[in-house]
Model the fold of this input.
Amino acid sequence: MQDKMKIGIIGCGSISGAYFGGATNTDVLEIKSCADIRMEAAKSAAERYGCQAVTVDEMLADPEIELVVNLTIPRAHVEVGMNVLEAGKHVYSEKPLGVSTEEAKKMVDLAKEKELRIGSAPDTFMGAGGQTSRKAVSEGAVGKPIAGTAFMCGHGHESWHPNPAFYYDIGGGPMLDMGPYYVTALVNILGPAKRVAGVTTKAFEERIATSEAVKGLQIPVKVSTHLAGTIEFVNGAVITMIMSFDMWRHGLPCIEIYGTEGSIKVPDPNGFGGAVRVAEERGDWQDVPLAFPNNARMIGVIDMTQAIRSNRPHRASGELAYHVLEIMTAFDKSSESGEHVYMETLIEQPAPMPLGLKEWEVEE
Done:
């Protein structure tokens, strides 16, 4: 048995609990230390989860740390990620990989130069819902995929979130906040995208917070809050997508894919499980038994550590995350230019999960 890979976590905010918790379910890695711009947050996490609270510089200088999980805010993902790579360590980032393809490419290029790996959330596509949906489509449950829909619609965060301003700043908005789950799920099932056509807008130049913590706060809206368009995939499927913080109520599904011989309902890609349903031509919806364990957040890091040890590609890769970022940012670019935006990257689908795995396993 190989030694556990020692890893560090930078960023001890609310999402970090899922990563710390997930790490307790595996013996392939050990969280040695954690860091945060607020040392009190790092100390609190370290005490709760049994690791060391250190500064970022101390973590990056630690020769035992092989991989760092970057849970900082989106605008810091690339800067922190590049510092990790410069220190000679692999990096796994929360989503999105960056706030633009231009800045994210710098990190991708540096990783290649350093012969290091980048991983990135979301890893939800590795759960039972995403993997069962992919298996069903790849086995011909709907015939050839022709079209589909992907919708994430609501009215934003200012009425309930304790810190809603982030969601309307650069790096936020419905596409970069929630889009990674939906677009990654589609690439996992359908393969890479070819081009995007989009129209984007925003309903308000400013939002007023009504959540108790910041009631009355005036929030400038710096990003598109309603993005609509189509993604044409290399395999020919055309997906209609809406990502919106401008809709009070709707009845739209999360993801559906329509093929020559039937249709499939893909569960909410923001989760790991959910019901997969298939309707054959002229038939009613039928539940498809989930063929994989649910797992939870951190499974992408576990897969990445084992892939490094096994010298195989990891699934939640930097290449996948960059392609997803290219798709997402193409909506605004297309809206501004009035033209299709063609993808510059062409990637392979991440490898499917093997059948017969137990929870938190990624290899046979």
User: Anything to note?
Assistant: The first strand starts at residue 5 and ends at 10. The chain has a mean pLDDT of 96. The radius of gyration is 20 Å.
